[in-house]
Amino acid sequence: MIPNAITIARLCALPVFVWMYGRDAPGASWDTAILVLVLGLSDLLDGWLARRYHWQSDLGRVLDPVADRVFFLFLVGALLLFGTLPWWAVVPLIVRDGLMLAGAAVMLFHAHESPRVMRGGKAANVILAAGIEFFIIDARTLGWIVYGVGALLYLVSGFRYIWREYRRSRTARLPQRPVAPTRGPSGPVTGR
């Protein structure tokens, strides 16, 4: 399927991103910023194509969210590796994504379900990516502001996601109690 091919191509381009950014880091790297923009837009494109043309697949339901996490791990990892961002600005995001990947693996193998996307998480991704883009083009002040907001939203969305999935798994494990019949206003027996 075309959406899965786009996702795989995005993953294959990540080492190219690291190489391109490494040439110019920690200074401005406009060609790297354009590559990151194209990779980010490809994520939107593959999702749109899958929904528009009904090309969703079990592989895509797993591959796309995993590719999103790997994409951000590469981005913030490269910013850390080349001295653009300090460890304390990157480690919480790496831990969050590590937890998200582990949770997705548990869901997939134990519940046979793929992760469900949250709108707040998508918004956090976009804002965080914009902050990273500002660092890549060496607009540090603006980068810190946007990255800070994006990172906060990114962490909050991760906790919300974990909480939602925890509650959902707890609800799914609770035994279902039968509903006792009650008398309706006109007399016949109805269920609640």
Give the key terms.
two-stranded antiparallel ribbon; 7 helices; 192 residues; 76% helix; mainly alpha; 2 strands
Description:
The protein is mostly helical and 192 residues long. The protein has a single domain (2-171), classed as Up-down Bundle (Four Helix Bundle (Hemerythrin (Met), subunit A)), CATH 1.20.120.1760. The chain contains 7 helices and 2 strands. Strands 1-2 form a two-stranded antiparallel sheet. Strand 1 (182-183) and strand 2 form a beta hairpin. Helix 2 packs parallel to helix 4. The longest helix has 34 residues, at 140-173. The model has no long low-confidence stretch (mean pLDDT 86).
Please specify the SSE layout and strand pairing:
Blueprint: H1 2-12, H2 14-24, H3 30-52, H4 58-81, H5 87-111, H6 119-136, H7 140-173, E1 182-183, E2 189-190
Antiparallel strand pairs: 1-2
Helix pairs in contact: 1-3, 1-4, 2-4, 3-6, 4-5, 4-6, 5-7, 6-7
Please identify the top-level CATH class.
Answer: Mainly Alpha
> CATH superfamily assignment?
CDP-alcohol phosphotransferase transmembrane (TM) domain
Helix content: over 70%
Shape annotation = elongated
Order of helices and strands: HHHHHHHEE
Give the strand tally.
2
Q: How much beta, percentage-wise?
A: under 5%
Rg from C-alpha positions?
21 Å
Integer average pLDDT? 86
> What's the tally of helices?
7
Provide the domain count: 1
CATH architecture: Up-down Bundle
**Main sheet: strand order:** 1-2
